[in-house]
């Protein structure tokens, strides 16, 4: 089997009895009105299909429309044209089966690690004892058992991110949307967190869309990588990454095939990054 298969996703109706894809964006466009009152198109004729249990990464030039893609899946933004479906159903609002992790974590500063992680199940009506048992279990899984009573300001960036992952995975999301979750971390911590994420995700069956500026991160994590064009974003190419799992970040970076895959995808991405940079220079900001 080839390690890398560029392809365009083809939209096909699911066969009778077959599981619907977790996420589908079909011919989606998203337009905004700028503060100056001009119409601008962020996404154009955008197609994406993420299967159940699949890990998709999205890369593209700065400002091209990556976060807008996630906002459409959450239901926080509506498409101007086309259709967005989650588990085969049109997105109608914020779905409780969807979890998020962003660049800045969403920890409650006045709550301990334990209370932060238990907050989700408590909000969903899980009895208190059970919610706290689950929270302790997830805190242990992210190796923070000794820090249950600490507050977010007493933790390092990497530890806060571990809390954010526990806070998300405890809700057993069917779909996980991640917007540059590790970009503020130093390189070593980032590598550890990537391993942590894969370990937590494997076996959950959750479908992931992970937005990143870091192509190596995308290739190391993903089953497939979407390369977007400079805005308005449309899908330039989808690359299927068939590197075997489980993957260990600190080792995979030195794997010859990994390096080759990164080079091939970078060839597709480079042109778009250059277009994006040129536009920034032309506009002066
Ligand atoms: N609510 C909004 N109103 C107006 N314009 C918006 C809105 N949200 C996004 N945009 C514009 O849409 C374009 C795409 O934005 P988006 O945040 O999706 O890009 P991105 O690829 O995630 O950016 P970055 O690489 O900086 O994270 C940008 O030009 C942005 O200014």
Automatic annotation (TrEMBL):
Any single Pfam family the record assigns to this protein: ABC_tran
CDD domains with a match to the protein in the record: ABC_NrtD_SsuB_transporters
UniProt keyword terms in alphabetical order: ATP-binding, Nucleotide-binding, Transport
Molecular function in Gene Ontology: ATP binding
Keyword NAD listed: no
SUPFAM superfamilies: P-loop containing nucleoside triphosphate hydrolases (SSF52540)
Keyword Repeat: no
Domain ABC transporter span(s) in chain numbering: 23-255
InterPro entries (UniProt xref): AAA+_ATPase, ABC_transporter-like_ATP-bd, ABC_transporter-like_CS, ABC_transporter_ATP-bind, P-loop_NTPase
Family membership noted in the UniProt record: Belongs to the ABC transporter superfamily.
Protein name from the UniProt record: NitT/TauT family transport system ATP-binding protein
